[in-house]
Each structure stands twice: as C-alpha cells, then as structure tokens.
Design brief:
Number of strands: 7
Family: Belongs to the UbiC family.
Protein name: Probable chorismate pyruvate-lyase
Pfam family, one: Chor_lyase
Low-confidence stretches: 1-6
CATH class: Alpha Beta
Mean pLDDT: 89
CATH architecture: 3-Layer(aba) Sandwich
CATH topology: Chorismate lyase
Strand content: 25-35%
Keywords: Cytoplasm, Lyase, Pyruvate, Ubiquinone biosynthesis
GO molecular function: lyase activity
Number of helices: 5
Structural class: alpha+beta
CATH superfamily: Chorismate lyase-like
Order of helices and strands: HHEHEEHEEHEE
Largest sheet: 7 strands, antiparallel
Oligomer: single chain
C-alpha cells in the first residue's frame, strides 16, 4: 500500500472515540458480524501490549463491522482470561453489539494512544483476517487492506487490546464526529 493510501486513511487511523459510532453515521444500518469469540493462547503482540506473562490464555473476539451490509472493518479484541470474571466480564455477553457499548459509556475506562500500523501482506494476522473475511463475506479481502490501528483500554487495572483493520472503501469517506 502506497503512501497515498495511508494518507487517505489517516483520518480513520487517528480518529478518537468510538469507531462504531463513526461508521454508523455513514449509512442507514450499522451492524456487527460476530465471527468468533473464544479462549486462545496469547499472541506475542497482544501479550506485549497487555503487559502479560509469556504463558496464559486470552479471550479473543473477532468481528466484521458493516455499514448497509458492506464490510468495512475487521476487528480483534483480546483480554486476559482472568479479566473476564472481573472488570471485563460484560465482554462475554456482548454478542453482536458493538464493543463501544462497553468502552465509551464508562468513565473508569481509559484508552491508550492510537497506534497506526501497516500489516505485513503475508503475516499471520493478515492471513488470519483474510480467511475470516472470505468465509464471512464470500469476497476476497482487498489486497490493499493492510492498515490497522491498535489501542489498549484499561479499567480497574485490567487491559483490553483492540486492533481494527480498515477496508480501502473507507478511503472515500470521512470519519466525521461520533454521536
């Protein structure tokens, strides 16, 4: 992906607040397609971002965010399994509701700085997202879909990492202000 593409997604990569609420303003119907939610071993980047030990388990939630049925974002959130019995227990029952319902309506939750990142075209995360994208949408994930952003949310000492991977279709849109 060239610098022009990154520049055209820059506003999305840096937009503060709720991505779900910003996306909802783009069309008539916003939806969350739950791909999977399960217990999984730590991934190195998640472990580092959450400050976790080398061994253990996370609860992982992977979704596609859609506007008017068009898939626009693949997202993955991860939290230490123990935190789902404490500060992040509501994550277990979230289903197809946006994660924003948990993150932005609670003053006790604090977000780290957004960290834009270009994924490797052949890296594990990109390949994993591409398999899920194809299975969920029937479409091959666009080759230009390489730009993501990461952030960590903290509540009562427990951290939740969110990674959002943006479809190139968002280049034509402005993020606007969330409601």
């Amino acid at each position: 992906m060239g610098i022009a593409t990154r520049d055209s997604l820059r506003d999305w990569l840096r937009a503060p607040g709720s991505l779900s609420r910003r996306l909802a303003r783009l069309g008539e119907r916003f939806s969350v397609q739950l791909l999977r939610q399960r217990v999984a071993p730590f991934r190195a980047q998640e472990r580092a971002a959450l400050g976790l030990p080398p061994r253990g388990l996370t609860v992982v939630r992977e979704v596609i965010l859609r506007v008017d049925d068009e898939p626009l974002v693949w997202a993955r959130s991860a939290v230490h399994q123990r935190a789902t019995t404490g500060p992040w227990r509501a994550l277990k029952g979230l289903g197809t509701r946006p994660l924003a319902h948990l993150l932005y309506d609670d003053d006790r939750i604090h977000r780290s700085e957004l960290q834009p990142r270009r994924l490797s075209r052949h890296g594990h995360t990109r390949r994993h997202a591409a398999r899920q994208w194809l299975a969920a949408t029937g479409q091959v994930m666009p080759a230009q879909m390489l730009w993501s952003r990461n952030s960590v949310f903290s509540r009562s000492g427990a951290q939740l990492r969110v990674m959002e991977l943006f479809a190139p279709a968002l280049q034509r849109q402005r993020p606007g202000r969330p409601r």
